[in-house]
């Protein structure tokens, strides 16, 4: 039996590796465990797939630094001090994810009024260099400001999802520490601006942001049943995650 067939057989029937089954059924936890196992398997399989199957251009952080001088006007010299709370922290973001977003913005696939004309004339290598520069900067940790009950609820969603609504655990793609998966192109979300995270999750929920097409609309699927309260709690939790 090949590794692929073993993976698929477990993905289709994860109960075979969950024990003791009767005890979990009694507590009503089996469905949650099944979902977590499936998400974890998908995460590691995609990581292996992208790592083994793809290579990308190499960005030059020094060249990117020179290009980023104009970017500092909005995102700050450190890449994490935006002039508005709805601007994303770029410092320490995964290079591949940043490149993909810059490429979509440059092509018009991701429309951002604030970025209009900022990437005009940039080559693909220029975008890789910019991505490499911001990826090389240290992340700026934040602090969660919610009460303990809200932080605990958000942590529960982040780590285990919401089984009754079919919401997958965020850790499956973004890792337990929120650092994402650089090989697969999943972004780091730890320490991100609260307002920015709220805006993006809401945009995914309302089908206004569609930059997850290459991942089968994954983020829209995750966010479609999240309430405003759940999104706000998650955003605050992620701000302090590190």
Describe the structure.
The chain is 52% helix and 0% strand. Mean pLDDT is 85; it is low at 1-12, 16-27 and 48-54. It has twelve helices and no strands. By secondary structure, the chain is an all-alpha fold. Among the domains are: 1-55, no CATH class; 61-136, Cytochrome c-like domain (Cytochrome Bc1 Complex, Chain D, domain 2, Orthogonal Bundle). The chain has helices spanning 3-12, 21-27, 30-53, 61-67, 72-75, 95-107, 124-136, 148-160, 171-174, 194-205, 218-223, 228-239.
Taking Cα atoms only, what radius of gyration do you get, to the nearest Å? 19 Å
Give the N-terminus to C-terminus distance in angstroms.
39 Å
The CATH homology group name of one domain:
Cytochrome c-like domain
Number of strands: 0
Shape: globular
Number of helices: 12
SSE series: HHHHHHHHHHHH
Mean pLDDT: 85
Task: Estimate the helix proportion, in percent.
Answer: 40-55%
Structural class: mainly alpha
% residues in beta strands? under 5%
Sheet having the most strands? none
CATH architecture label of one domain = Orthogonal Bundle
- CATH topology name of one domain, in short, is Cytochrome Bc1 Complex, Chain D, domain 2
Poorly predicted spans? 1-12, 16-27, 48-54
What is the CATH domain class of one domain? Mainly Alpha
């Amino acid at each position: 039996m090949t590794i692929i067939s073993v993976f698929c057989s477990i993905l289709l029937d994860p109960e075979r590796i969950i024990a003791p089954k009767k005890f979990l059924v009694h507590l009503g936890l089996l469905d949650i465990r099944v979902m977590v196992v499936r998400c974890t398997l998908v995460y590691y399989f995609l990581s292996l797939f992208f790592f083994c199957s793809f290579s990308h251009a190499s960005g030059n952080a020094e060249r990117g630094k020179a290009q980023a001088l104009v970017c500092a006007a909005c995102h700050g010299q450190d890449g994490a001090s935006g002039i508005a709370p709805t601007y994303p922290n770029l410092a320490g973001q995964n290079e591949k994810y940043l490149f993909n977003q810059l490429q979509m913005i440059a092509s018009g696939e991701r429309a951002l009024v604030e970025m209009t004309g900022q990437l005009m004339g940039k080559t693909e290598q220029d975008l890789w260099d910019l991505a490499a520069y911001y990826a090389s900067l240290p992340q700026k940790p934040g602090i969660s400001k919610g009460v303990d009950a809200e932080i605990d609820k958000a942590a529960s969603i982040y780590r285990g999802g919401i089984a009754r609504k079919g919401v997958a655990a965020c850790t499956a793609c973004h890792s337990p520490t929120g650092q994402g998966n650089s090989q697969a192109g999943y972004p780091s979300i730890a320490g991100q601006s609260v307002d920015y995270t709220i805006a993006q999750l809401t945009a995914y929920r309302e089908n206004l942001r569609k930059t997850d097409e290459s991942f089968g609309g994954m983020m829209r699927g995750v966010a479609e049943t999240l309430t405003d309260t759940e999104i706000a709690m998650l955003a605050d939790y992620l701000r302090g995650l590190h």
